Task: inverse folding
């Protein structure tokens, strides 16, 4: 289970990084908004970005569902410490989902304002 959790987290991290462009070049900038060729590239790949983000959100939803099932099992078995850890993991997954959705909304809002065919 621990190995699966680590692989899941690593996979979600990789997908999230790819989905949202890994703003490494923009990190040194005060304004992370893409400009010039980078903006054109984001506009061209908007469908791919949205697909990757949707897969990322689906993976988080699947993780939350698995955690909920495990929580119900642990609660029924009276394993309070396990249940507490699962509740903490569910809260973290919900936070990750909210952040991913917020980033996706930001990308789509930017695209509406800056991409000609959106």
Result:
């Amino acid at each position: 289970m621990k190995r699966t959790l680590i692989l899941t987290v690593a996979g979600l991290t990789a997908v999230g990084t790819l989905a949202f462009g890994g703003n490494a070049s923009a990190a040194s900038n005060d304004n992370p908004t893409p400009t010039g060729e980078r903006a054109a590239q984001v506009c061209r790949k908007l469908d791919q970005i949205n697909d990757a983000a949707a897969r990322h959100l689906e993976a988080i939803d699947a993780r939350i569902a698995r955690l909920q099932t495990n929580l119900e099992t642990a609660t029924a078995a009276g394993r309070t410490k396990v249940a507490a850890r699962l509740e903490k993991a569910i809260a973290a997954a919900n936070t990750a989902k909210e952040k991913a959705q917020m980033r996706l909304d930001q990308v789509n809002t930017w695209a509406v304002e800056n991409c000609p065919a959106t």
